[in-house]
Design goal:
- The chain is an alpha/beta fold and 399 residues long.
- The strands form four sheets. It has a seven-stranded mixed β-sheet.
- Helix 4 runs parallel beside helix 5, helix 5 runs antiparallel to helix 11 and helix 8 crosses helix 11.
- Bound molecules: nicotinamide-adenine-dinucleotide.
Length: 399
């Protein structure tokens, strides 16, 4: 199968990471046309990455007859405009996170691509990290039993461009920027066909002189009863903290993607400057990342996307997922204001509707349910039981 020729929109941080990923390791899918507002930047980016064409007109870049795929790496307020142009051109569309600034805008985007019947992949890289993919498989294989809780954390000293800090352009603060990752990671562990029912969220502006939240913590409650917790911060010092945890009835997973990957380096003098994304120092104890693009999931993400385009199937992350994430974030913003649990409003739910929450009782004997067993320090075994008829809690020690 031949590779695809791509129009890349945006020459900022993510345009750079995406192009680096696609053009590395002898990849066959190549950026053919790069779009930037500035001619100088477009030319430099094209020359850095061996890209044949550059454009300062977005429409022309999208309509390049040589490209079949459009990748969007522009600020959040431009996603809809870029998607509309690409859908009109009948091209496959890959859009970065968040899909939109609100569920309403995300739904409009979803309708546009579904009406145009074009391929639409949601570039949620953090569910594609090698560790996360393997962890999701373990959960799906039942290694953890029923999932009860997930935790996903993304925290760093704040984004690198002005537009992120302007909530009219970006759609919000740390929640819309990073909560979108955490929420989708939680959905993947709990099951994307499980309805997110309601959310409770705290969000505040603790450090930065902006209108939006620079810190937030949220709980998303799912139809199974599972709760998915996210923590985001734009004022966390010491680098980019990316961690996930999953708890199930039969097991637990802990993941650390960035600050403690097993690679720690001390240098008194430093070297060429860049250590890892959002690293705050160049000397002392440092936490480099072996292959950032790989560790952040970009390689597996594009492999899934381009394989799906070739096969005519849906990728693991679709625009519908982006829409659900936006709906959950809308509820978070509402809850942060009302200080109450707020329902997730999904006018278009495509998952299961037959899921209920509740405890799966474990039978101990004819009269009792088992609460738990424990090996005591002196070697004896203890069981804690509940009487089925009276509800009385008791314990039994053996050995
Ligand atoms: N892990 C991830 O998936 C990830 C990481 C970072 C950013 N992003 C997303 O990628 C998108 C871009 O973020 P970024 O970090 O690359 O930002 P950035 O500021 O580094 O780059 C933005 C690009 O858009 C261009 N741009 C800005 N305003 C424009 C306008 N009005 N018209 C046309 N072009 C304009 C800039 O010149 C630049 O090329 C955002 O949606 C962001 O949320 C995703």
């Amino acid at each position: 199968m031949k590779g695809h020729k791509i129009t890349m929109l945006g020459t900022g941080l993510i345009g750079n990471f995406y192009t680096m990923t696609l053009h590395s390791q002898r990849g066959k899918d190549r950026v053919q046309t790069i779009y930037s507002r500035s001619e100088e930047r477009a030319k430099k980016f094209a020359s850095d990455w061996g890209i044949p064409k550059w454009e300062t007109d977005m429409e022309k870049a999208v309509n390049d007859p040589e490209t079949s795929v459009v990748i969007i790496g522009l600020p959040n307020n431009l996603h809809k405009e870029a998607i509309t142009l690409a859908a009109k051109a009948g091209k496959a569309i890959l859009c970065t996170k968040p899909l939109a600034r609100s569920a309403r805008e995300a739904k409009e985007i979803l309708d546009i691509v579904e009406k145009a019947a074009v391929f639409a992949g949601y570039l949620e890289d953090l569910v594609y990290t090698p560790k996360t993919l393997k962890a999701i498989k373990s959960v799906q294989n039942g290694a953890l039993g029923k999932v009860t809780w997930t935790r996903s954390r993304e925290a760093h000293p704040g984004p690198h461009s002005d537009w992120f800090w302007n909530s009219e352009v970006s759609g919000g603060g740390a929640i819309v920027d990073m909560g979108c990752h955490c929420i989708e990671i939680g959905r993947n562990f709990i099951g994307k066909d499980i309805l997110p029912v309601e959310v409770m969220c705290w969000a505040d502006t603790l450090v930065k002189p902006i209108n939006a939240e620079d810190n937030a913590v949220g709980l998303v409650k799912y139809a199974t009863g599972a709760v998915s917790q996210f923590e985001v911060s734009w004022s966390y010092r010491g680098g980019m903290d990316l961690r996930d945890e999953v708890a199930g009835v039969e097991g637990t997973i802990r993941l650390d993607h960035f600050l403690r990957t097993g690679f720690e380096l001390f240098t008194a003098v430093g070297e060429d400057g860049y250590v890892a994304e959002k690293a705050e120092s160049e000397t002392g104890w440092l936490f480099p990342v072996g292959d950032e693009a790989h560790a952040l999931g970009y390689n597996h993400m594009f492999t899934d996307m381009f394989d799906a385009i070739d096969k005519g199937t849906a990728p693991m992350e679709t625009f519908y997922d982006g829409y659900v994430v936006n709906a959950i974030m809308d509820a978070c913003y509402k809850s942060a204001k009302t200080k109450k649990w707020e329902p997730v409003e999904l006018e278009d739910w495509r998952g299961r509707t037959d899921v209920t929450s509740g405890i799966d009782m474990v039978e101990y004997d004819a009269d009792h349910y088992l609460i738990k067993t424990e090996k005591l320090p002196d070697g004896r075994d203890k069981v804690i039981l509940k009487n089925k008829n009276t509800g009385e809690i008791s314990q039994k020690v053996t050995g």
